[in-house]
Structures are given as structure tokens and as C-alpha cells.
Amino acid sequence: MKQLLTALILAIAMFVFASFAFTTQHAILLALIVLLVVLWTNEGLPIGVVSLLPIILFPTFDIMSTNATTANYSKSIIFLFLGGFMIAIATQKTNLHKYVSNKLLTIFPNTPRGIIFSLAITSAFLSSLISNTTTALLLIPIAMFLTTDLNLKVRLVLAIAYGASIGGIVTPIGTPPNLILLGFMEQHSMEAIPFVKWILLTAPLAALMLTIIPFFLSLGVQHLKFDTHLEDREHLTSEQRRLLYIMGSLVVLLFINSKIEPYYSGLGLNEKGILLGYGLLMFMPKIGFLTWEDTKKVPYEIIFLFGAGFSIAAAFSSTGLANEIAQYLLELTNLPIILLIILVAALITFTTEVTSNTALISIALPIIYSLGQAAQINMTLILFVSTICASYAFMLPIATPPNAIAMSSGAVKVKDMAKFGLLFNILGILAITTVALVYWQFYL
């Protein structure tokens, strides 16, 4: 009950504060967002319950209709998650994760810091080539079985989730906001950023973050040991081998389906359909491994969580709150470039904590574009910074798909993610600002 009262008090305080600068409807929307975020963070109610509250609250306070709100709970990306969760459940059911865990421990240093670094780097590498969502879905089940120590397990899962977000910015295909930026630039007749140039621009930032984040995650756990009870299996079973071949074909298909403009246009298949198709393949007789009873293990609360995120983003747009915020930002266009970049980076990083990065960047790019025009600064630079920051939010599960998948593992609590994430958000903002001023502004 204490958590509920805290959330209500903070929401009312936000309404009173916001009323001085925004309309009543916008102040109510901001108050409702605070209510949801606090309840997600302090776990005053189950995550799934909190995630369904917009369906009740938004129509009640005349933010959006019930139909408009519920439509956000069936976005196509949700079915990508559903397919990925089915594959993850099959991985656990066949114990393939245990086999891979043993192999991982023989390749990398068998210390907490060594494994944390290796998981983060592996995750970042894969997510630069296939989506960060898919990477997290494939790797987190492995990390879950490396140790029974909850403190260490949290660090391993977060290393994969954060590594996936870090690596997702390295290529244009790594995460949806990158593709949204390229589409926005094309729409406004701006010169596109070539694939190789994108990599050269983002690689130094990714390397910096892959040094900082695993280092801090490994603090305080160096004395812990990995479990030795994992089965030392020399050979794969027939089921494990079949699942490994299926997952290998999935990775290959995702690779060849990815666009590498202007050199390769990809297959043109929808990645969400690919993941859902492979998830459903897990039920095929003599091919798959699951029965319908296994779907009880699907973390539906995470699916509801993303529906809430899309609803918040839609409310920002439909109520005009996004445009009103843009007007306030335009008054800050006479700031020095360093302060303007820090402001934009902080605004995007912390705003994306309460909505999906894909939804947010769709709303934010037009705002930032107007800001860049008024400030008469390097337009490509400010848009690029905004897009990267949309993927570098580490505090809440709703911020990015890898964060949500980390939550679905059951090992990570919101308070754990918030504790590490606040530090990494601040360090990420400083790192992005530094790289933007020292490097990006001379090549964009």
C-alpha cells in the first residue's frame, strides 16, 4: 500500500507542477506517466497489471479512447517478441542453454569479470549484425544457467541486455531507430549516411561503452564463483542438434535478409514475420519441441509492457504534447552547441525510459529537426545524437527491447535495472556528447 500511495503523491505533484507550463490535459498525461513509471519501479502492483492501466486511465481522463489505446497492444513488433520467447522456451526445454554455457566457460576466463565482458561483447557483436531484440532473446537463456547466485545472475543478464543496446547502434540495421532516422533523412532530402561510414562513426562510442559498462557491472562480484554442477556433456543430443541447426538457419536468414545500402537490398522479408514463423515452427511435429502447454511460460506481462509504451507514445502525439514540448525547446536554441547537445541527449535518453525507443524516435525526430533549423546547427549531427540516445537508455524495461527481455528472465527486478541504469544513462550521455563534439561534428 505504501508503494501505491507514493506513486499517487508523486503523480499529483507532477500534475500541480506541470499545470504551470502545460494545458490541463497535458498536465494530466504527464501525471499519469509518472504514476505508471513509479509503479513499474517500486513494484507496487505487478508489472503486467500496471502495463494494462492505460486502457483504463487514458479514456477516463480523456487522453485517448479505449479503441485507440488498445490498438497499441497489438503492434507488429509484439509478435516478434512472441516468436522469440517461443524459441527461448524451446532452448530451455531441450537444455541447449546448458551445453552452450559449458562451452562458453571453456572459451573465456572463468571469472565473473571475464564472463561479464565476454557476454557484453558477444551480445554487442551479434546485435550489430542482427536486431538487438533477437540477440537478447538468443543469449539471455544461456546466461540464466551459468550461476545460481542471484547477484551474479543479474549482472550477466544485464551485460547481455546492455551489450545488445550498445551494439545495436553500430550499424543501420542493428535497431529500429537507426532505420527510422535514415527514412526521415530521405524524406527531408538530406544526404544519407552510408553503411560503412555509419560503422566508422559509431564504433568508437560502442568500444567506449563496452569498456565502461561491463567494468561497473563486474564490481563487487569478483569473489563469486560459477556453478560447477552444470552437466559436462561432450556431445549434443539429437534434439539439441536439431534446435541448433534451426537457430543457425534463423541467424543466417536474418543476415541475408538485412539491407546493406547501397550494396545489397536484402530479401525484403519482414523480420517480425521471420521470428514469429520460427517460433511457430517450434510446435511442428517431428521438427519442433513445444506443446501448447509450454506457452504458459511466455512472459505476457512484457508484451503488455510494450503495449503501454506504445500507448504513451501515441498519447504524446495525439494530444499535441510533443509539439508543445518542441515550442519550449525552441526557446533554448541560442545555447552553446555543447549545452544543446547535452540537453538533447539527456531529454531523449530519459524520455525513452517511459516509452519504446522506436515510438519515441518517431515522435522526437520532427521536434529535433525543428530545433536544429532554429538553432542553425549541423542538422545531421543533432539528429544522429538523438537517434543514438534513443537506444542508450538503461534504466527501465520499457525503454528498449533488450531491457524488456532482461526483465522477462525473472532474474532482474526493476529496481536493479534502475540502479545500474541511472549511472549508465549519465555516463552514456557524457560519452555521446564527447564523441559528438570531438569526432562526429567533423564528419557529419
UniProtKB/TrEMBL annotation:
In what residue span(s) does the Citrate transporter-like domain sit? 38-388
- List where in the cell it is found: Membrane
Name it: Anion transporter
A Pfam family cross-referenced in the UniProt record is CitMHS
Q: Where are the transmembrane segments?
A: 45-64, 76-95, 115-144, 156-175, 195-221, 242-260, 272-290, 302-322, 328-350, 381-399, 420-442
* GO MF terms held by the record: organic anion transmembrane transporter activity
Q: How does it sit in the membrane?
A: Multi-pass membrane protein
Q: Which InterPro entries does this chain map to?
A: Cit_transptr-like_dom, SLC13A/DASS
**Gene Ontology CC terms:** plasma membrane
Record has Cell inner membrane as a keyword = no
Presence of the UniProt keyword Isomerase in the record: no
GO terms for biological process, alphabetical: carboxylic acid transmembrane transport
Keywords noted in UniProt:
Membrane, Transmembrane, Transmembrane helix, Transport
